[in-house]
Amino acid sequence: MTSSATLPKMPVTPIFNPHGDDAIENRSIWFGNVTNLMQLNDVRYPWAVGLYQQMRENFWIPQKLDLTQDVTDYWNLTPEERYAFDGILSYLTFLDSVQTCNIPHIKASITAPEISLCMAEQISQEGMHNQSYQYMIETIIPSERRTDVYDFWRTDQVLLKRCEYIAGLYQQYIDNPTPENYFIAFLADYMLEGLYFYNGFIFFYNLASRMLMPGSADIFKMINRDELSHVRLYQKLLPEAMATLPYAEDHVYEMFDKAVQYECQWTNHIVGEQILGITAASTEQYTKYLANLRLKAIGLKPLYTEDKYKKSPYAHLERFSDTKKAGNTKANFFEAGVTSYMMSSGIGGWDEI
Ligand SMILES: [Fe+2]
Ligand SMILES: [Fe+2]
């Protein structure tokens, strides 16, 4: 193993390395000397095999979910709700596009095959999430407005800045692939997976709680479940990254605080105060609550210490998110046997698969 501090560049694992050593005791997440064969008989990180299995069992097909009611509901939304619907869909399309593009760069330096396996599945899921947005856009949004959803960032300066900031942290690593920049891109992944989707999800669950756009909410609860499996992957990897790669703890808190500010700014811009059940105050409380939760999960202190940031203002929407049910987010799933997961039920269309 090489010390990351002495490396000017993050090593990219060769396609095939006949001089590698796949012995389990010599494996590591980064800087290992593996052959790059996916030797999965013996694994150093068994939790990754369990996580991969759960990601596969979360399999779903967007087109199996029924959007019929949403087509009518879309025209019964208020103009503000419709504007937020289009804008959030556009932002989420950006997030999944950028992940599909970025994760292969992160994965290229991974030297534990079981972790590569999880990232390969993550890339597949992010791609499929884009397909689910396409399905929603094509089904719900009239043809003359569809391109506007994809192009929202071209006319909306707030969204453009948001996209540029998120992509910029990834691009910085590609342009200058040092171990420090790898860590920053890695942390940025965690913030995207763990923070950036959720005010968007809340908007759709909020509509569903008022009996609006139920098919869209069904799609988002499946995406939500997938994203939570990605959050878990980074939660497991970040403490290892902090032990292996050069980083400054202050910088981690700084990045989190910035992420929270930008997320609130964007949500206030696109959702504002015009939508029943969501206010600038509830957005701030929820985003800071989530940031605390994500920090705690990687062994760091909460950034926002007031009592109100200890709970979600949207607990009443949890039943729409479907992420608390058995088979979705088992608290102990890392330790559970790989055959113990259940296929999700209660969502239309599974019988046909
Ligand atoms: Fe995704
Ligand atoms: Fe994701």
Described by strand count, sense and barrel closure, the largest sheet is: none
- Give the overall shape, derived from the CA principal axes: globular
N-to-C SSE string, H for helix and E for strand: HHHHHHHHHHHHH
Rounded to an integer in angstroms, the radius of gyration calculated over CA atoms is 20 Å
The CATH architecture designation is Orthogonal Bundle
Number of helices: 13
Gap from first CA to last CA: 45 Å
Unreliably modeled segments: 326-353
DSSP strand tally: 0
Q: What proportion strand?
A: under 5%
- By CATH, the superfamily comes out as Ribonucleotide Reductase, subunit A
CATH fold field value: Ribonucleotide Reductase, subunit A
Could you state the oligomeric state of the chains shown? single chain
CATH class: Mainly Alpha
Number of domains: 1
Description:
Helix content is 61%, strand content 0%. Helix 3 runs antiparallel to helix 8 and helix 8 packs parallel to helix 11. It has 353 residues and is mainly α. The chain has a single domain, classed as Ribonucleotide Reductase, subunit A. The site of one fe (ii) ion has 5 residues, from helix 10.
